[in-house]
């Protein structure tokens, strides 16, 4: 099967259908599976960007702020996906597995970073206007 035809299959059909079509065409395709070390993350105040290194695919997730949304959807909401690799797709990796793992990583890392930031902000608000270590402190 020509490379161009294979590339088009990735856009038009699901991973399961793609495997079946390639088997019928005489090609036995083994799908690779993503692992945690295949991903890099960058966290901002507004969201998380997760890069799938093998294909240079970039997944953007937005931070959810409303507690009702977080309870229903989790801490992040999927945004844009950009496949920056030479093939323009997820190559021999199942797209749904990459998307799911990227979202899980974004939620995990984002929650961890944002909770620390939120605690620091709460501490600043609590300590604002208060003097620590002043002359009136008594140490016994």
What is the element layout, followed by pairings?
Layout: H1 3-12, H2 15-24, E1 39-43, E2 47-52, E3 57-63, H3 67-73, E4 76-83, H4 95-127
Antiparallel strand pairs: 1-2, 2-3, 3-4
Task: Walk me through what this model shows.
There is one protein chain. The protein has 140 residues and is of the alpha+beta class. It is built from four helices and four strands. The chain has helices spanning 3-12, 15-24, 67-73, 95-127; strands at residues 39-43, 47-52, 57-63, 76-83. Strands 1-2-3-4 form a four-stranded antiparallel sheet, covered by helices on one side. The longest helix is centred in the last third of the chain and has 33 residues, at 95-127. The protein is elongated. Mean pLDDT is 79; it is low at 1-12.
Distance between termini?
Answer: 82 Å
- Please provide the ordered H/E string of secondary-structure elements: HHEEEHEH
- Averaged pLDDT: 79
Number of domains: 2
What would the keywords be for this entry?
single chain, 140 residues, alpha+beta, 2 domains, 4-stranded antiparallel sheet, 4 helices, elongated, disordered N terminus
Concise summary:
The chain has 140 residues and is α+β, with helices and mostly antiparallel strands.
